[in-house]
Amino acid sequence: MSEASKILSEMNDRSREVFRLIVESYLDSGEPVGSRTLTRTLSEKVSAATVRNVMQDLEFLGLLDSPHVSAGRIPTQQGLRMFVDGLLEVGDLGADDRQKLDDTLGPNAGDVGGMLDRVGSALSHVSHGASLVLTPKHESEIKHIEFVSLAHDRALVVLVFADGHVENRLFTPPPGQTPSSMREAANFLNALIEGRTLSEVRRQMQSQIDTRKQEIDVLAREMVESGIAAWEGDGSDSARLIVRGRANLLNEPGQAEELDRIRTLFDDLERKRDIAEFLELTEDGEGVRIFIGSENKLFSLSGSSLVVSPYMNADRRIIGAVGVIGPTRLNYGRIVPIVDYTAQLVGKLISDRS
Fold first, then answer.
1. Residues in domain Heat-inducible transcription repressor HrcA C-terminal (predicted)?
2. Which residue in 4, 55, 327, 347 could disulfide with 82, CB within 3.0 to 4.6 Å?
3. Residues of the domain holding 299
């Protein structure tokens, strides 16, 4: 059971109703709610003093806050989170909102890029907030690739496609990588990437890795059998060939050259594994998510919230997302079905096109 569910389950009916009415009133007006206002809307007739005691208890729990000493209460970020998780009643999409979205994103919406631009405009218009649209990843022949280090745990890959499309993707680089190693990886990939899609390049890299492992196995087998070397961690991707001291006494013709060849192949294998890691950039997402205030680093400074939902292609694979950004007192019950419906509509249109 989540912390929000636990607190809600421990509340009595009066406390739960007072909390719900305060949040709903705040989301509607943005103003603090006083005890006298609540006495007129509560289902049971109680005094303003009783309501004030309940509000003080809710404030002690961290769910309400008082902006001024004598003012009413407003929900805290924790209170909004609990309301969204446990008390939010999501309404049906209104007929007018549905019609506006259908009209904007109809079957004659043009190219996918133009259609997604209209998605943003439609969401902003219907929700009266800022919209967020994450577009599908481009999958066509690549002309050029570049890696840019932004921080020790953040990097940007710039993909230039043969059709002129340019795409930037943020990712977390493999541990130990430096700006220099990223440049080397980009130089290596640009030598073989033109005319191929990203998926084709990944398959080619894996094929080269498998070939290098086979070459090492063939060259190392005789040395292992003669006791000159031994495998450490055999059978895993991190297997290493440990050369023993007697390798310094190699006198047989060709043995020293073979050992150098193995070392070179190992270096090449590690380099290709590093490059393969750069190509394995994946993203995932699921369901409608609601981020409130500082829960999302993108919006913590502005005190905003984001309601976002992914959309899928015909193969039921998540390829993008749409969302609405607004104040923390967003009308979540109205916005969630708008975002959810828009995501389904975009997914259907993209699936129909493909």
1. 115-336
2. 4
3. 95-136+284-353
Q: Give the sign of the dihedral formed by CA 51, CA 57, CA 60, CA 61.
A: negative
Compute CA distances 348 → 170, 175, 354, whole Å.
27, 39, 10
Are 128 and 106 members of one domain?
yes
> Is residue 195 helix, strand or coil?
coil
Distances (CA, A) of 278 to 191, 197, 259, 264, 285: 16, 15, 29, 22, 21
Q: Give the N- to C-terminal CA distance of the chain in Å, as an integer.
A: 42
Looking at the structure of the chain, the number of domains it has is 3
Q: Are residues 100 and 81 in the same domain?
A: no
Sole residue written with tokens 């950039």: 281
- The tens-digit pLDDT sequence of the chain (354 residues) is 556 567 777 788 888 899 999 998 888 888 888 888 888 888 888 888 888 899 989 988 889 988 776 568 888 888 888 888 888 878 788 888 888 888 876 655 556 667 777 888 888 888 888 887 777 666 678 888 888 887 777 777 777 878 776 777 777 777 777 888 888 888 888 888 878 887 788 888 888 877 877 776 666 666 666 655 565 555 455 555 555 544 444 445 555 666 676 667 666 666 666 676 666 642 333 456 566 666 665 555 456 777 888 888 777 777 778 888 887 778 888 888 999 998 888 888 877 765
Residue with tokens 């439609």: 122
Same domain, 295 and 188: no
Is 118 in a helix, a strand, or coil? helix
